[in-house]
Design a protein that fits this description.
Blueprint lengths: L4 H8 L7 H9 L7 H11 L5 H12 L13 H4 L4 H7 L1 E7 L2 E6 L5 H16 L16 E6 L2 H8 L1 H19 L4 H17 L2 E8 L4 E7 L2 E8 L4 H11 L11 E9 L2 E12 L2 E9 L15 H11 L4 E6 L6 H12 L6 E5 L9 E5 L8 H8 L6 E4 L5 H11 L4 E6 L7 H7 L4 H7 E13 L4 E4 L3 H8 L2 H11 L9 E4 L10 E12 L2 H8 L4 H10 L5 H10 L5 H9 L1
Parallel strand pairs: 2-3, 10-14, 10-15, 11-12, 11-13, 13-14
Antiparallel strand pairs: 1-2, 4-5, 4-9, 5-6, 7-8, 8-9, 15-18, 16-17
């Protein structure tokens, strides 16, 4: 049985679980496809129209299968691993219990006969490799039967996180084995592979391997924050460093020089680039690996978190055939993601788009991308000089770092090219003094620049454990010292009493690793170049004066944008204070 829109309406609206108007509003914008039911479930729960457990139970009854709430189910690693992680993730299934010769499996598609055959074969192979000996079942004498249970997409996603714990246990056991036998090269290879797989599954952007006097610490940067994950004895470090140098094609006998390399890696057939930086420090060689996992396919301008008015400003500036769009902010503030999202919007057959980058983080079809290479004299400045001879319509320069690049970029923007670039600056208004410091004349800047986008990244509240709360005494005391921030909150909430305003936070759950946060979004300010701003730039006014004028003209500051996202439950007040005051 397939749950169509009509059937879904009959089992939800007719009995009065939700209102017909709410149902029609939710389903109106959802394309009818294989994921239709899952998309409807997501939005019904997200809009708090019906509890997820109740919705899952109703759908399970309609399908003729029992419902299981995996969020309330303890699953041992032995039972979980009856189905390999790759199969569980690709087919969205979880084995959660075994009774006799019955393997109970939670799925989104219990009526699928092909899924049943696929899982029977996977389980047969798994048990023949004695993977489930600890279950006290004589695997080879029993033919396993599968019993399907229906569950919701959020339940499946939640349970997939249990594989992380299994991976952590494997790493710990492997380190213990290596302590007993440090010469086992195969285990060194496996340990590094497990580090990378663990980091990928935890959504880490970076792996830090840091030697100290007593041990080597491994930390992951997840959603912009570093977390201690595991450590290992110092005696294993040299072998791990050597293995990573071999993978990155770096000289293994060089220990006193900073080295940069890269290699490709894959987890569950998801390929990504790993950039490796090795730096000699007092305790040994410090390693940082950046995982360049391609997420650009999912990132569109509409999904980055821009306010509607700001999104229109970006679309207006990017529709022009000339001029410059700058993305500014500190390292790791989402600048490159913004520019790629704009490029994807502009990527059409009738235009020639070329880039010069360091590094090329995402490869995009039909865009000609060049990696800088100082050894071959391909710098940002030289690369840009060559690009303008290639008849481009649109150019992206990874970063404006020096006078020469700034000069060529401004000239390109004034001669019929739409040019996108990044610049290190604290806010949108600071971009102008930064560029004049690079000996670019102010009158040229105001002729070339169309738009400046300043950004920061904040952690999003985990939607699995989001709760409402009122400000604590400690938070109220902090706001007493933040008069501007307090005023913005009161203005947006339209309430004078801060204790009467509803705020949100994550209480912590397995999905978010008990941090209360899951993934990140942007907070922005968009400065359009209008005549009053042009006059201030030409007069070499301070960044503060430019910022003040832009706010008077209607620009939404990063702090203001952040508070809007705090009050709508996207992020926390703590996050906005952290990123705007640091």
């Amino acid at each position: 049985m397939v749950i169509s829109k009509d059937i879904l309406k009959k089992i939800l609206v007719d009995p009065g679980y939700i209102k017909e108007a709410d149902f029609e509003e939710v389903t109106a914008g959802i394309i009818k496809s294989e994921s239709f039911l899952n998309d409807v479930i997501h939005f019904l729960v997200a809009k708090k129209l019906i509890p997820e457990e109740q919705l899952g139970s109703i759908i399970a009854t309609a399908l003729g299968y029992p419902f299981v709430d995996l969020k309330k189910t303890d699953i041992s690693s032995e039972i979980l691993n009856i189905i390999p992680e790759e199969a569980a993730r690709s087919k969205r299934v979880i084995s959660f219990d075994v009774t006799g010769n019955i393997v109970k499996i939670a799925t989104l598609d219990p009526n699928n006969p092909d899924l049943l055959k696929y899982l029977q074969e996977k389980i047969r192979r798994r048990t023949e490799s004695s993977y489930t000996t600890s279950l006290n079942i004589e695997e080879k004498k029993i033919e396993y039967q599968i019993e399907f249970y229906y569950t919701t997409p959020a339940n499946i996603q939640h349970a997939l996180n249990f594989y992380r714990k299994s991976l952590y246990e494997q790493i710990k056991n492997l380190i213990q084995d290596l302590q007993k036998n440090p010469k086992n090269e195969e285990n060194i290879v496996l340990l590094i592979n497990l580090f990378l797989e663990y980091a990928y599954n935890e959504r880490a952007s970076d792996i830090h391997i840091e030697p100290s006097k007593n041990h080597v610490s491994v930390r992951f940067r997840i959603d912009g924050i570093l977390y201690e994950m595991i450590d290992y004895p110092n005696e294993l470090h040299d072998k791990i460093v050597s293995r990573l140098k071999i993978m990155s094609r770096l000289p293994i006998d060089e220990h006193e020089t900073a080295l940069d390399g890269r290699f490709d890696f894959s987890v569950n057939k998801n390929f990504f680039d790993v950039r490796v930086s090795i730096m000699p420090i007092i305790g040994g060689e410090n390693i940082v690996m950046r995982l360049l996992v391609e997420k650009s396919e999912k990132e569109t301008l509409e999904k980055l978190g821009f306010l509607d008015a700001d999104l229109e400003k970006i679309k207006r500036a990017s529709s022009k055939s000339y001029g410059m769009i700058l993305a500014v902010g500190p390292t790791g503030s989402g600048k490159t993601t913004i520019l790629y999202s704009i490029l994807k919007k502009l990527n059409r057959p009738e235009v020639n788009i070329m880039t010069i980058e360091d590094p090329i983080e995402y490869e995009v079809d039909h865009i000609q991308q060049t990696q800088i290479n100082p050894k071959k004299n391909i710098t940002f400045a030289n690369g840009l000089r060559f690009i303008v001879r290639q008849d481009p319509n649109i150019i992206m320069v990874g970063e404006i770092r020096d006078n020469e690049t700034a000069s060529i970029a401004v000239n390109a923007a004034m001669t019929g090219h739409l040019l996108l670039s990044t610049l290190h600056a604290n806010d949108a208004s600071t971009a102008f003094p930064r560029l004049t410091e690079m000996n670019t004349e102010p009158f040229l800047l105001v002729s070339a620049i169309n738009l400046v986008i300043a950004s920061r990244l904040v952690r999003k509240i985990c939607q699995e454990c989001r709760i409402e709360y009122s400000l604590s005494e400690a938070e109220l005391n902090i706001l007493k010292k933040e008069e501007n921030l307090k005023k913005i909150i009161k203005d947006i909430a339209q309430k004078d009493d801060l204790t009467k305003i509803v705020f949100y936070k994550g209480s912590g759950c397995k999905s978010c690793g008990y941090t209360g946060y899951y993934e990140r979004t942007g907070v922005f300010e968009i400065l359009e170049i209008s005549n009053p701003i042009r006059l201030l730039v030409i007069e070499k006014a301070s960044a503060d004066a430019i910022q003040q004028k832009a706010l008077e003209l209607g620009m939404t500051s990063i702090t203001h944008d952040g508070i809007i996202k705090v009050l709508n439950g996207t992020t926390t007040l703590e996050e906005i204070i952290r990123v705007t005051r640091s």
